[in-house]
Amino acid sequence: MSSRSAACSGLGCAAEAWQWDWRKALPWLIGTGVILVALVVNYSRGGSLLFFGAMVLWAALEAWRRRSWKVLAVGGSLVLGLVTLVLIGGGAFAGRFAGGADSQVGFRVLIWRDTLALIHAAPWCGIGLGNFTALFHFFRTASVSQQTVLHPESDWLLLAAELGWCGVALALGAAFFILRQAFPFAAGSRRRLRGAALAAAVAALLHGAIDVPGHRVGSAWLALFVVVLASNEAPAAARDSWVAATLSRVLGLLALVGAWAIAQMPDHAARAEALLSAGKYAPAEAAADRALERAPLDWRAYFTRAGARACQGHRLEALADFRRARTLEPHYARLPFEEGRFWLQAQPALTLSVWREAIRRLPPSEAEDLYGTMLSTAPDNANFRAQLLAMVPDRPMLQLQWLESVPDAEARAHLEAITAVARQCTPGQRAGFERRVKQLEAR
After folding, report:
1. Buried b / exposed e across 70-84, counting CB within 10 Å, b at 16+?
2. Residue 406, exposed/middle/buried by CB under 10 A (0-12, 13-18, 19+)?
3. How far apart are CA 16 and CA 21, in angstroms?
4. For residues 59 and 49, is the Cβ–Cβ distance under 8 A?
5. CB 307 within 8 A of CB 342
6. What is the reported pLDDT for 86?
7. Which carries the bigger pLDDT value, residue 334 or residue 246?
């Protein structure tokens, strides 16, 4: 968002300077060109689209101000020509608009669908600031995957989820009253620059519908700067008001103090993880307690505290915390897997239980790597390996993987049962199975 806003403002400054001397506009045009090249090099698909959209809006504002369709036609033609140039010379950047296997557009749509389900649960007041990441897990149906979702890929949906539709209405009302200050575009009021800045501000609002640029402090500050550029000059009475000046300075100081206080707050969750890794279990538990006081829905803090308690021999308390962590994060397969590693030596039965859940959380196409890690991590115990086979009765591919990993004697004991399920596998998988059978027959 910041690059797009800077490019729009640069073009506005160039247009404003052009009316006095075209040579004064050249530095602004060169700077804008550098920003556009950066957008293409960084494959910023959303930023580029909204930049071109802002330029079309700017041309429309100029056409409306001059009451001339010719201005709109010329401006639109220039934008289309620039778009064509970018798409022809953009290479991989142009390919992003065609989508593909690595495209994230479809996944974003699934996230938006699940976010709307979350909003439907608390439509008016929302779930509270900062709670989206902790609560979104319970509403994931269409977008279920092993990828953690920190935000809904939309500033407006994030606002609706945490503050409700009332918060969205207030934000839209505030944006309307602020942007209304850009009108009218009177002569002598830097109207070309203000028109470009207004177009950039509107593009920023639209960008927030399909991405989350507003949660970055730098982008938010630049957007506010662009809004100020779009505004008309304040009346003399308002500029000379000592009350307004004093109030603005006080609010600025309070904002600085608040930011400094937040920056000084210790990260107890990260400290707890570091202490657990260092083998300092009691301090790790205490740090996790402090982290949970601040964020009681953070599954990572529960998991860290559970590990610290398990290492201290407090098994019942550790089991309760592990269960809380799995409840708060019901999709991530590595969570029950790592829990099982804690119990591997002391309580192998608990390991098998949570590893079974880890496999259940993964689709068949993604379970092979984790199951292989389980086989390599498992203790050298034939009964334990037999239980690992028993936990995947409906996963033929994993059974073949088990057959290739265990000692020959254990493989022969289960060969007949695995032969029956091998018929359900692909030709490539059956070829690996047949090679393993020949190895067993030759030994």
Report:
1. ebbeebeeebeeebe
2. buried
3. 9
4. no
5. yes
6. 66
7. 334
For 149-180, what is each residue's pLDDT tens digit? 888 888 899 999 999 999 999 989 988 888 88
Place of tokens 């079974």: 356
H or E, element range at 108: helix 105-121
Task: State how far the Cα of 22 lies from the Cα of 140, in Å rounded to an integer.
Answer: 55
In the chain, where are the structural domains located?
1-103+189-207+214-229, 104-182, 264-330, 350-443
Say if residue 441's pLDDT is above 90: no
Structure tokens at 134: 């902790």
d(CA 267, CA 113): 32
pLDDT category, 406, cuts 50, 70, 90?
confident
**Beta-strand runs (E) in 46-155:** none
CATH architecture assignment, domain 264-330: Alpha Horseshoe (1.25)
- 112 touches 152 (CB < 8 A): yes
Kindly tell me if the per-residue pLDDT of 425 is higher than 50. yes
- Closest C-alpha among 87, 100, 159 to residue 130: 159
Percent of the chain with pLDDT over 70: 87
- For 21, the token pair is 């001397």
Q: What's the token pair of residue 63? A: 């056409």
| Amino acid identity for residue 193 in this structure | L
Q: CB within 8 A of 181, min separation 6: which ones?
A: 230, 231, 232
| Residues 302 and 323: beta-carbon distance below 8 Å | no
For residue 146, how many other CB atoms are within 10 A of its CB? 13
Does pLDDT of 286 surpass 90? Answer: yes
Token pair of 387 as six digits: 């239980």
148 Cβ contact list (under 8 Å, min separation 6): 133, 332
Amino acid at 118: L
User: In this structure, are residues 328 and 302 in contact, taking their beta carbons and an 8 Å threshold?
Assistant: yes
Q: In this predicted structure, which of 37-46, 303-312, 354-363 has the lowest mean pLDDT?
A: 37-46
